[in-house]
Amino acid sequence: MDYFTASLSRYGNIQCLFLKNMSDRRIRRLARQADLVVVILHQDAGEVREYFEKHSRWFGNCVYILNDYLPEKDLSIEELSRKYRIDQMRIACVPYNTAYQEAVRTGTQDRYLRSEQVPCLFQAHMDFRKELVRTVRKIRKALEYSAL
């Protein structure tokens, strides 16, 4: 989230909430009042199904991010869009990237993201940096939509 928060700082106060405990009324109220809710999901059909069955009705303006995305896995962006009737402009992904995960673990993710070459395990299919930039664009567009 650090990458996204820094990229979106001109939009004002960005709050990051971990919504693991959706039974907490305060968390639900904050999320309902937000201009935009960014929902980060693992590319796991069971987790995604549970989210949409139990929690999706609480939020209006949402962007969904599939984290550690692998194009070859069974739940693709297209499948998520079709199955849950979400505009693909509201779905983004952060590709699976072991080098980035190691940079996060060691606290060097800023240096990693600024480096000239950002390797991605699945470089032939997806470019890690381009997907991050594309995700920021989708979030910005949703924020601009909420301001109308």
Task: Summarize it.
With 148 residues, the protein is an alpha/beta fold. Helices cover 46% and strands 13% of the residues.
Structure description:
This protein is of the alpha/beta class and 148 residues long. 46% of the residues lie in helices and 13% in strands. The protein is built from seven helices and three strands. The protein has helices spanning 2-7, 25-33, 45-54, 77-84, 98-106, 109-114, 128-147; strands at residues 37-42, 62-69, 91-95. The chain has a three-stranded parallel sheet with strand order 1-2-3, with helices on both faces. Helix 4 (77-84) links the parallel strand 2 and strand 3 (91-95).
Identify the notable features of this structure and list them briefly.
single chain, 148 residues, alpha/beta, 3-stranded parallel beta sheet, 46% helix
Report the major sheet: 3 strands, parallel
Radius of gyration (CA) equals 15 Å
Please give the count of helices: 7
- Main-sheet strand order equals 1-2-3
N-to-C CA distance: 25 Å
Number of DSSP-assigned strands: 3
Oligomer: single chain
Query: How big a fraction of the residues is strand?
Result: 5-15%
- Which structural class matches the secondary elements? alpha/beta
Low-pLDDT stretches are none
Query: What characteristic shape results from the CA principal axes?
Result: globular
Mean pLDDT: 79
Order of helices and strands: HHEHEHEHHH
How are the secondary structure elements laid out?
Layout (H helix, E strand, L loop, with lengths): L1 H6 L17 H9 L3 E6 L2 H10 L7 E8 L7 H8 L6 E5 L2 H9 L2 H6 L13 H20 L1
Parallel strand pairs: 1-2, 2-3
